[in-house]
TrEMBL record, chain A:
InterPro entries: DUF6339. This is DUF6339 family protein. It comes from Streptomyces ficellus.
From TrEMBL, chain B:
This is Uncharacterized protein.
Length: 301, 325
């Protein structure tokens, strides 16, 4: 059911939840049939003020390359490759990225085959044919196949440096758990978490979950923004980066692209949060943690 | 704060108001701020495009209590959040000579999808631990970037469309072309699609007419509203999320306020948090869900003012009968 780039609509559109949900049949979720492209294209709404920002082709090429560069057994690894390049290619304001209709359109019209390739379980429950859960097509930002990658890149990058976002996307539990926490909207908090990943202080899924629970619980009594202040990203620089898309080359496939130059996260603030989180993590209970480090098999979700 | 904390928190109230607002440096008309509803509406017809809103805050915190308590390095911050857009900005406020705290948090248009919640927290060092939240506002404000009027509860979005016409993007309504209306709750905003192809309905629901017509109109409006509230409630309950640690999370957007508005009528004896977990467990465990339906229907009909509208209609009928005799 792979689609050739030439058959695709030129511009992205918006597909409302109701329309998306109606077309997520069992056949689409199991990957046996394609969504009805013609009907969907007709029901989609146009994006106001359309321009090159909404071109479909660069996205489709990106998804094709992600598949080409990762074989089926390494498909979870495609997340950390795709996230920064998707963010670089699809330049959105946060208000735009908060619209589920855009992500519905990408999942159902532009790349349903990618969603199935990436998220179809290997084995099915209760003897039925394996199926992708519907929220990978049409769901909240931490579940939807493309929204979660875009938001991970947006929330974990350090200014124009996507490397922290790559570290975040290498761990499925960061995507599944940390991404949905409100506290990571604070840049130094997000960066402290990725630094702990880079330094190998947290590694397994269970460790990530334990850390996430501890960070979230502590945030109910502590105001992280007061402990480690951050002026926040430079909105004008972000705008400039968005407008610059026409001049920008396609996302490089082998090296990381550069993100928006909207200001690095103050290092001192990251230090404060990282020191605090390390202390929290040392005291946090980790499920199934043995006295000597038991090897854990990474879970393919 | 109601939750018990393992350190000293403020007993007194933290209250605040948005005294004024500016859009790109120009004053927002005062009519777009409601002190009563605690809402700022930012969508002006004359100025659709803007980059940044600046809100003028006045905060009162229990000064006397603070002076005597075990707190140091006290700061007051304004917090703007919106779930779907991952918006969270924290702005430090300044203490003015008369003891109120003032400041101007800003909201970028690009950062917010529909409405952000504005709250205030008091932060201090307690027992040597810096950054402790020792108090916060309970009555928060809403900053709505799409609204023209500062009202908390949004009216239902009414979409008039001829179901029979196969009109883009409403082709799916064609299958329901003999229905007078249909409630849709899957999107950003609950919507009532009103079938203009249903003969006479537009005129009936339009303005004017005799008192009898008005009474019938009220009755139909109540009927539509009941269906809408019931559908919204079910949609909201199915959107309750279970976090990794098993705790429940309120859904976002309108589903949040629908639950908060209706749960006190559905489960009157429980606190909001307990009601949330009760409703969730009844739904997933299937037992007790059916027993709850009359209560949900009752809560929806109360919201829709069915009793009042029906009463009015019956009185009108009586009166017209008397007139005939």
């Amino acid at each position: 059911m792979s689609r050739h780039a030439d058959d695709l609509p030129e511009q992205l559109g918006l597909l409302r939840d109701a329309v998306a949900a109606r077309n997520l049949t069992r056949g689409v979720l199991t990957g046996q049939e394609s969504p009805p492209f013609v009907a969907l294209a007709r029901e989609a709404e146009r994006i106001k003020g359309a321009g090159s920002r909404w071109n479909v082709r660069p996205l489709r090429e990106l998804f094709d390359d992600a598949r080409r560069l990762h074989d089926e057994s390494g498909r979870t690894g495609a997340d950390s490759w795709l996230a920064p390049r998707l963010h670089y290619t699809l330049r959105l304001t946060r208000a735009e990225a908060a619209d589920p209709a855009l992500w519905n359109y990408i999942a159902l019209v532009v790349a349903p085959d990618y969603v199935v390739w990436r998220h179809l379980p290997k084995t099915a429950r209760d003897g039925k044919r394996p199926a992708v859960t519907a929220d990978r097509f049409c769901g909240p930002h931490y579940k939807q196949a493309f929204a979660r990658l875009w938001w991970a890149a947006e929330l974990f990058r350090d200014g124009d440096d996507y490397r922290p976002a790559v570290a975040a996307c290498r761990n499925q539990d960061v995507l599944n758990t940390v991404l949905r926490l409100d506290v990571i909207d604070h840049r130094p908090t997000a960066r402290a978490v990725t630094r702990m990943l880079e330094d190998g202080i947290v590694r397994t899924g269970r460790e990530v979950n334990a850390l996430a629970t501890a960070i979230n619980a502590a945030a109910s009594t502590l105001m992280y923004e007061v402990l480690a202040s951050d002026e926040g990203p430079d909105a004008e620089a972000f705008r400039y980066w968005m407008d610059e898309l026409d001049m920008a080359p396609p996302a490089p496939r082998k090296t990381l692209p550069a993100g928006p130059g909207d200001g690095a996260i103050p290092e001192g603030a990251v230090d404060v949060m990282a020191t605090y989180f390390e202390k929290l993590f040392a005291e946090a209970p980790v499920r199934g943690k043995e006295p000597k480090d038991a090897e854990e098999v990474p879970i393919d979700v | 704060m109601k939750t018990l904390m393992p350190y000293a928190t403020l007993a007194g109230e933290v209250t605040f108001k948005v005294a004024a607002a500016k859009l790109d440096g120009r004053d927002l008309p005062l009519s777009m701020l409601s002190q009563q509803e605690r809402v700022v509406a930012l969508h002006q017809v004359e100025r659709q495009k803007w980059d940044e809103a600046r809100l003028d805050l006045r905060v009162r915190i229990p000064e006397a209590e603070l002076a005597e308590g075990p707190w140091s390095d006290v700061v007051c911050v304004a917090v703007l959040t919106e779930g779907v857009s991952n918006l969270r900005t924290v702005t430090r406020l300044n203490r003015s000579a008369d003891g109120t705290w003032v400041g101007s948090p800003t909201l970028a248009r690009d950062a917010c999808r529909t409405r952000a919640e504005l709250s205030v927290s008091v932060v201090a060092t307690v027992d040597g631990v810096p950054g402790r939240i020792i108090g916060g506002s309970e009555e928060n404000w809403l900053v709505d970037v799409l609204a023209r009027k500062p009202v908390r509860q949004r009216e239902l979005h009414i979409n008039e469309v001829d179901f029979g016409e196969n009109q883009k993007p409403y082709e799916w309504l064609h299958a329901f072309k003999d229905a007078p209306w249909l409630v849709e709750t899957s999107g950003d905003m609950p919507t009532v699609h009103l079938n203009t192809g249903f003969e006479g309905i537009t005129e009936l629901l339009g303005s004017g007419g005799s008192t009898m017509e008005k009474a019938v109109r009220g009755l139909i409006a109540a009927q539509i509203a009941t269906e809408a509230w019931t559908a919204m409630f079910h949609s909201a309950v199915s959107d309750i999320e279970v976090a990794e640690d098993g705790s429940l999370e309120w859904p976002s957007g309108w589903r949040d306020w629908v639950l908060r508005a209706m749960l006190p009528d559905v489960l009157p004896d429980l606190s909001p948090a307990d009601a949330l977990s009760e409703i969730h467990s009844r739904r997933v465990e299937t037992s007790g869900w059916n027993e709850l339906q009359p209560r949900i229907q009752y809560a929806a009909s109360r919201r829709a003012r069915v009793a009042k509208n029906l009463g009015t209609a019956i009185r009108e009928l009586d009166r017209s009968d008397e007139g005939d005799q």
